[in-house]
Amino acid sequence: MQKDIATPVRTKEIMEKYGFSFKKSLGQNFLIDPNVLRNITENAGLTKETGVIEIGPGIGALTEHLARTAKKVVAYEIDQRLLPILADTLSPYENVKVIHEDVLKADINQMIDEEFADVKDIMVVANLPYYVTTPIILKLLEKNLPIRGIVVMLQKEVGDRIAAKPGTKEYGSLSIAIQYYTTAETVMIVPKSVFIPQPNVDSAVIRMLLRESPAVSVKNERFFFNIAKMSFAQRRKTLMNNLTSGLPDGKKRKSEIADALDAAGIEPSRRGETLSMGEFGTLSDALFPIFG
Ligand code: SAM
């Protein structure tokens, strides 16, 4: 087996061979620690039956670990300069396909139909470009893809918000948006030193496994997410204050909001960060007939 791409020596060799320079604007921080990569693949529960979607293969550090463990890997890379490098570094692996596309513009459902028709277990595994972490994860979840889950490296601070529980300062509308679809947990904290160039912040590996059905059943999903967002708009304000500022004509319709809170059994003086996912569901269902 060839030496891992994800070592400082081999990464530097590859970069020099191709005269490659990092683009900060594309979130290019490459992993140079094979142990971290092994940890990511293990946490994704990959087998030779698994199809993997990778976002941002870079020079292939994670991709080769995925290719060794999974049935097939399809990787989206936005930076054209990396294509010849990937063709070289990944040449030992026949089960990898690189697509040159911005993942945010890609039709992933169609790609799955074409590339993973015979695959029952599909996982998204990536060391994400940090400038677009949240839009990428939300796109993956909102498109209803037939995936088992997502295991990704991201900024630790974003990971903390994704996996946060009610009553903590990290808990917010992002926690609700993601935990609605998945069980989310941090599986590893990763120091800056395992990347080149080193990012400014620490990182974490987060595992999000799709729930069989959403965490709460609500009358209207869009409205539910809007109510959650509104409730966290000004964290120091009470729920009542945030709702009167956020709902249409809220200030004039205070008594209707108070009635809905009462019907949902939620004290108007509470802060958004204390509400569980279930309580947001009950509240949004009580408000939906009035404001939806
Ligand atoms: N997987 C490699 C590793 O772990 O060393 C590289 C990870 S690096 C953090 C992020 C990668 O995502 C870069 O290769 C970058 O060019 C790519 N990228 C950035 N924005 C992207 C987008 N919108 N769609 C697809 N790839 C993107």
What attributes characterize this protein structure?
292 residues; alpha/beta; seven-stranded mixed beta sheet; two-stranded antiparallel sheet; binds S-adenosylmethionine
The profile of the biggest β sheet is: 7 strands, mixed
Question: Distance N terminus to C terminus?
Answer: 59 Å
Q: H/E order of the elements?
A: HEHEHEHEHEHEHHEEEHHHH
Strand content: 15-25%
- Which ranges are low-confidence, i.e. pLDDT below 50, for 5 or more consecutive residues? none
In percent, how helical is the residue content?
40-55%
Bound molecules: S-adenosylmethionine
Mean pLDDT: 96
Give a written overview of the molecule.
- Helices cover 40% and strands 18% of the residues.
- Helix 11 crosses helix 12.
- The site of S-adenosylmethionine has 23 residues, from strand 1, helix 3 and strand 3.
Structure described in brief:
It is built from twelve helices and nine strands. Strands 4-3-2-5-6-9-7 form a seven-stranded mixed beta sheet. Helices cover 40% and strands 18% of the residues.
Write the layout of secondary structure elements.
Elements: H1 8-18, E1 30-31, H2 34-43, E2 50-55, H3 61-69, E3 72-77, H4 82-89, E4 96-100, H5 108-115, E5 121-127, H6 133-142, E6 149-155, H7 156-162, H8 173-181, E7 182-190, E8 195-196, E9 203-210, H9 221-231, H10 239-246, H11 254-264, H12 277-291
Helix pairs in contact: 2-3, 6-8, 8-9, 9-12, 11-12
This protein binds S-adenosylmethionine.
